Amino acid sequence: MSRARLVALLSTLALAPACGHSDSASAPTSAAPVAHASALAWAEWGPDSFARARDDDRIILINVIASWCHWCHVMDEKTYGDPEIAALLDEHFVTIRVDSDERPDVAERYREWGWPATAILTPQAQPVLALRGYKRPEKFKALLLELIADRDAGTLAMRTPPPPEVRPVEGSLGPVRDAATAQLDHYFHEALGGWGELQKYPFPAPVEHSLVRARVYDEPKWVERAALTLANEIKIIDPVWGGIYQYSVAGDWDHPHYEKITAIQAGAIENFAMMARVSGEDRWLAPARKVADYMVDMMRAPEGGFFTSQDADLRRHDGPTVLGEDYYARSDAGRRAMGMPRIDEAVYADLNGLMIRAMVELYAATGDPKDLEAASRAAEHLVSTHSARGGFTHGAKDDSEGILYLRDQAAMGWGLLALHRATGDDVWLDRAQGVAQLMLDELEDPEHGGFWAHTSDPDAVGVFAERRKPVEENGLAARYLIELHRYLDDDGQAQTPYQGAAQRAVAAVGQTRSLKKEGRIIGRILLGIEAVLMPTVDVTIVGRDDDPETQALHRAALRLPEPRAVIERSLPGERYPEIGKPAVYLCTENACSSPIADPLQLPRLAEAFLAQSLPPSSR
Question: What would the pLDDT profile of 504-517 be if each residue is shown by its tens digit?
Answer without folding.
Answer: 999 999 988 889 88
